[in-house]
Design goal:
Shape: globular
Number of helices: 5
Largest sheet: 3 strands, antiparallel
Mean pLDDT: 92
CATH topology: Arc Repressor Mutant, subunit A
Order of helices and strands: HEHHEEHH
Distance between the termini: 24 Å
Radius of gyration: 19 Å
Strand order of the largest sheet: 1-3-2
Strand content: 5-15%
Helix content: 55-70%
Amino acid sequence: MMNNSGDQNPDHIGWNLWQAAAAWKTRFTREMVAKGHDWYGEARGALLQHLPSDGIRQNALTRLSGMTKQAIQQHLDELEKDGIVTRENDPDDKRKKRVLLTEDGWQAVRDAAEVKFQIENFYADALGRDALNNLRTSLKIIIDLESQR
């Protein structure tokens, strides 16, 4: 569906959600790079969202990320070289590797939390805290509705 101005951009909630998420991610990535985490602007930066505090098996990271085994291996090699993650033998199965954050990796996690808080506060200032809370509630409802389908 075209919007009322006659251009080709779609006018539906999916497009709005996608644009908002893309804009948020662009800003988040830019801020993380500005904090000195240059690697966050690369594909390998996306792996940190899948790393729980107690680490994760490398094969589980492959499944969660949707990347190929080869891509995960390459990204982890680079992150390990940069001192962001380390790979250790899994205590439950010595044949498998467990990916863990290093102190530099934990610093990136702390910086990410700070950046997310700053972005949220910017949105609260622009929209008003009540409007932002209403938006968050609405998004959670949409997520719940779609998870039930």
